[in-house]
Specification:
Helix content: 40-55%
Low-confidence stretches: 1-49
Order of helices and strands: HEHHEEHEHHHEHHHHHHHEEEEHHEE
Protein name: Cytochrome P450
InterPro entries: Cyt_P450_B, Cyt_P450_sf
Organism: Streptomyces hebeiensis
CATH superfamily: Cytochrome P450
CATH class: Mainly Alpha
Strand order of the largest sheet: 1-2-3-9-6-4
Region (Disordered): 25-50
Family: Belongs to the cytochrome P450 family.
Largest sheet: 6 strands, mixed
Length: 455
């Protein structure tokens, strides 16, 4: 579960911001100077050249980069160093931070690289239907807050999540897993991405938030979250996000009238006194950060277990190997590859680059995790958890989010391997393909076969 590392994914205090100004509702993509951030108006000579594309900037697109992003990161490092000029959709300029030390620096220095996207010097060039709007369009949610306001909002979510019993969550996840496996166990074959890895975390998280299991809206919510985070060309991510927001608004209204032992009710009852709108936005952050990244974490780990000979001898029910595989995936195939982003508060230097006030920085978690500066021998080990897959600093994935995500992912994998101990890939490993995204790392499908089991 990332803040973002998550995915509306994947900042912190800058100058103290007026609470009302910080929370002023702004439609996605509409530019407004954040309270407390002073600067020359657009068109002023002081803005000349601000945010302009750097010569040699690389487009973050293309099938080759989507399927083998590690090649892109190596090329960018060789040609540009730890901070590379890139072009987002529509050739919008940004900086991709590739180095482990540089990503750590950015996420630890909120006074220089902040989260309020209204600072962006590119807003005059951004169309309302820009594909990345769900990532960068300012919303009054935890993701875009800074300073004391961020601490207030983060505290509410952390305390609501801390009240989740991890043993009870594991029990719930096992029940969900058993039910999903029952739907395909007798057939001897399955496509695990859609029928299992994607479905399980969503059911678990919406249940934690107070949406009853089996609710008719759950599948629509799953689909719309997926579209809003990582939309195919024929879908509308902004419209999907608005549908997600409408469902959360109904949930918050229901819980105001009839609270229960769930995350939503605890957020509403917290002494910080969040408004309904604040709770809605922060619930979307929690659910989005938990669902798609965790689904990809599960599926990427299953891929590793089913294709790597190191796990072949003890994978079935092997808790140690499952834990090792989960951690290795966070290093090598982290679900949130890149995250938009941070915005420079003022002119500064990073990785030998001159970063101008208002420039957008994309956090390259995948590139940072495989930085040759931290793995000088070329071998990426998974012996520790110093990866940046849950981000870093004040805006990292909130505690105990990573622990809850681990419970969901570990339970999903262990239950599947216990129920279907002889599961193997139904295709050759090289036939597996990654979804066409530079942001999220996940398979298009994971077809498997096994001995049919009837309970």
């Amino acid at each position: 579960m990332t803040d973002p590392a998550g995915p509306l994914g994947p900042a912190g205090p800058v100058e103290p911001m007026d609470a009302a100004g910080a929370m002023e509702a702004t439609a996605p993509g509409r530019h407004a100077d954040p309270a407390g951030v002073q600067g020359p108006p657009p068109g002023c000579p002081a803005h000349a050249g601000a945010g302009a594309a750097v010569p040699g900037a690389v487009r973050l697109s293309g099938l080759e980069y989507q399927q083998t992003p590690s090649q892109l990161y190596r090329t960018l490092r060789r040609e540009h160093g730890a901070v590379a000029p890139v072009l987002l959709d529509g050739d919008i300029p940004a900086w991709l931070v590739l180095g482990y030390a540089e990503v750590s620096y950015v996420t630890s220095h909120d006074d220089l690289f902040a989260r309020d996207s209204r600072r962006w010097n590119q807003w005059p060039n951004i169309p309302a239907d820009w594909p990345l709007m769900p990532f960068v369009g300012y919303q009054p949610s935890l993701l875009f807050t800074e300073g004391a306001e961020h601490q207030r909002r983060a505290g509410v979510i952390s305390e609501a999540l801390e009240a989740v019993d991890q043993f009870e969550l594991a029990h719930v996840c096992r029940q969900i897993a058993e039910g999903l496996i029952d739907t395909f166990a007798g057939s001897g074959q399955a496509e695990l991405m859609a029928s299992y890895a994607h479905a399980l975390p969503m059911r678990a998280v919406v249940q934690l938030c107070g949406i009853p299991q089996g609710d008719v809206d759950t599948e629509d919510l799953v689909r719309d979250l997926k579209i809003s985070l990582d939309a195919p060309e024929d879908d509308d991510p902004v419209a999907a996000y608005l549908r997600v927001q409408e469902r959360m608004e109904r949930l918050v209204k229901e819980k105001r009238n009839s609270p229960g032992p769930d995350v939503t009710s605890r957020m509403l009852a917290h002494p910080a006194g969040l408004t309904d709108e604040e709770v809605v936005q922060d619930l979307i952050t929690v659910i989005a950060a938990a669902q798609q990244p965790t689904a990809n974490w599960i599926c990427n780990t299953l891929r590793l277990l089913l294709t790597d000979d190191r796990f072949a001898l003890n994978v079935s029910g092997g808790r140690l190997s499952v834990g090792h595989a989960l951690n290795e995936v966070l290093w090598l195939d982290t679900p949130t590859q890149n995250f938009v982003g941070r915005w420079a508060v003022r002119d500064t230097q990073l990785g030998g680059r001159h970063i101008k006030a208002g420039d957008c920085l994309v956090l390259g978690f995948a590139a940072a995790n495989t930085d040759p500066q931290i793995w000088p021998e070329g071998h990426v080990g998974a012996e520790n958890s110093a990866h940046l897959s849950f981000s870093n600093g004040e805006h990292r994935c909130l505690y105990p989010g990573p622990l809850l995500a681990d419970v969901i992912a570990r339970t999903a994998i262990e239950t599947l391997l216990e129920r279907l101990p002889d599961v193997v890939l139904a295709v050759e490993p090289e036939e597996l393909t990654w979804r066409p995204s530079i942001w999220m790392r996940g398979l298009t499908s994971l077809p498997v076969r096994f001995t049919p089991v009837v309970r």
